[in-house]
UniProtKB/TrEMBL annotation:
PANTHER family per UniProt: DEHYDRODOLICHYL DIPHOSPHATE SYNTHASE COMPLEX SUBUNIT DHDDS, DEHYDRODOLICHYL DIPHOSPHATE SYNTHASE FAMILY MEMBER
Its EC number(s): 2.5.1.-
This protein's record includes keyword Repeat: no
Gene Ontology molecular function: ditrans,polycis-polyprenyl diphosphate synthase [(2E,6E)-farnesyl diphosphate specific] activity
GO biological process, one term: polyprenol biosynthetic process
Name used for this protein in its record: Alkyl transferase
Signal peptide: 1-28
HAMAP family: ISPT
Cited Gene3D superfamilies: Decaprenyl diphosphate synthase-like
Keywords of this entry: Magnesium, Signal, Transferase
Organism: Wollemia nobilis
Length: 286
């Protein structure tokens, strides 16, 4: 009798879990439909902040916090894809993060390599959804094993065309701008060595790491901070900034929904600013 009761309780728990998941998925689909009634941001940028605090508050190792953060990224990517977002750019690892303890940096590199290799699986989200993965930053600063995994993922997903995931690693915006200016100067001098011309805004933008993607429409930062932390400074002049109070591993569809809703309220102003920037950039030499 006792065994039967335990089995009955187990089946009841599984059934309730299934019902709860079904209700949750239905609610998410309804909320996606609500958002699609308005403008959906083409490009969402995210500063994934709070992994270490998440681990500290739960008396876990820092590595565990980053692992939870990686899971949150994949779920958020799935949610963005379902909404119809074309491009997602995340700030995964700053050049300044190399100043952290050797133990934490090594753990992050191990996690990064593992997650990159997992993306090669045919059943991974990026392959199932047709998402192209690009790693942006000074990749020469990464360990060779991580750089090799990154290059392999970028080559393997190059033909995916439904959406783009940009992962900024070994990245700061100032380094990106310096890199772009150097590339623009070399391009102008090399292409027009006789008839030199001034460097235009578009020359620099074509050498940014994010070249080929539209500027962000919405930039989200978790953990309650409202700083850009040297992330997409050139590209985010006319995007909607949303500071979310939860830590990154706690970020859910509900928080993404509220961020996109805020963007929709400010969309007309953002579009005007982006249009003004586009027109000004075509005629303004640097």
């Amino acid at each position: 009798m006792e065994i039967t009761a335990k089995r009955s309780g187990c089946w009841l728990w599984l059934w309730l879990s299934w019902v709860f998941t079904a209700i949750q998925n239905s609610c998410r689909q309804i909320m996606v439909c609500i958002l699609r009634a308005g403008p959906i941001p083409r490009h969402i940028a995210i500063i994934m902040d709070g992994n270490r605090r998440f681990a500290q508050r739960r008396s876990m190792e820092k590595k565990a916090g980053h692992e939870f953060g990686a899971e949150s990224l994949m779920q958020t990517l799935r949610n963005c894809y379902e909404m119809g977002v074309d491009c997602v750019t995340v700030y995964a690892f700053s050049i300044d993060n190399f100043k952290r303890s050797r133990e934490e940096v090594d753990a992050l590199m191990d996690l990064m390599q593992h997650k990159l290799e997992a993306l090669l699986d045919k059943e991974s989200l990026v392959n199932q959804a047709g998402i192209r993965v690009r790693l942006l930053g000074n990749l020469e600063l990464l360990p060779e094993r991580v750089r090799h995994a990154a290059e392999k993922v970028m080559v393997r997903t190059m033909s995916n065309s439904k959406a783009i995931l940009n992962v900024c690693v070994a990245y700061t915006s100032t380094e990106e701008i310096v890199h772009a200016v150097q590339g623009a100067c070399q391009g102008v001098l090399g292409f027009e060595s006789v008839n030199r011309r001034e460097i235009e805004t578009e020359d620099i933008e074509s050498h940014l790491y994010t070249a080929g993607c539209p500027d962000p429409d919405l930039l989200i930062r978790t953990s309650g901070e409202s700083r850009l932390s040297n992330f997409l400074l050139w590209q985010s002049g006319f995007c909607y900034l949303h500071a979310c109070g939860v830590l990154w591993p706690e970020f859910s569809f509900r928080h993404l929904f509220l961020a996109v809703l805020g963007y929709q309220r400010a969309c007309s102003y953002i579009n005007q600013g982006q249009k003004h920037k586009s027109l000004k950039g075509l005629s303004s030499p640097l």
